[in-house]
Specification:
By secondary structure, this protein is an alpha/beta fold. The chain is built from six helices and six strands. It has a single domain, classed as Transcription Regulator spoIIAA (2-Layer Sandwich). The chain has helices at residues 13-25, 41-56, 68-76, 80-83, 88-91, 96-107, and strands at residues 2-3, 7-8, 30-32, 38-39, 62-66, 85-87. The strands form two sheets. A four-stranded parallel beta sheet has the order 1-3-5-6. The chain has a two-stranded parallel sheet with strand order 2-4.
């Protein structure tokens, strides 16, 4: 499984994309986002580029362990459904009912909360 590391921002997006795209080209099908503690809109751009590359190869790509802040950014830009994100809390849910209960929390995140430091 491909890991995106602990930080994915404008400062390192090009390098992360280059390395991750090479792994996707080799057939990697899952991207682990669980360690990402620092993200900005560049993270969403990297995820979209990886998704596009995989789709061009006829390959499905799964983003797992997506932190709430990154999921909220993807939702804000309207690409969360396209990327089929699997949030961190859904990964730990024991049942589909637990997953459904976790979704409203991410959906109710206010965009203003994304700018707090």
């Amino acid at each position: 499984m491909l890991s995106l590391g602990t930080s994915l921002t404008n400062r390192n997006a090009a390098a992360v994309l280059r390395d991750a795209a090479a792994r996707v080209a080799q057939g990697e099908a899952q991207v682990d986002c669980s360690a990402l503690g620092q993200v900005d809109s560049s993270a969403v751009a990297v995820m979209l580029a990886l998704h596009r590359d995989a789709s061009a190869r006829g390959q499905a790509l799964a983003f797992v362990g997506v932190p709430q802040q990154l999921a909220a950014l993807a939702s804000l830009y309207g690409v969360d459904t396209l990327l089929a994100l699997s949030p961190q809390n859904a990964r730990n849910a024991a049942s589909p009912a637990g997953q459904a209960a976790a979704e409203p929390a991410a959906a109710s995140l206010e965009p203003a909360a994304l700018h707090r430091h």
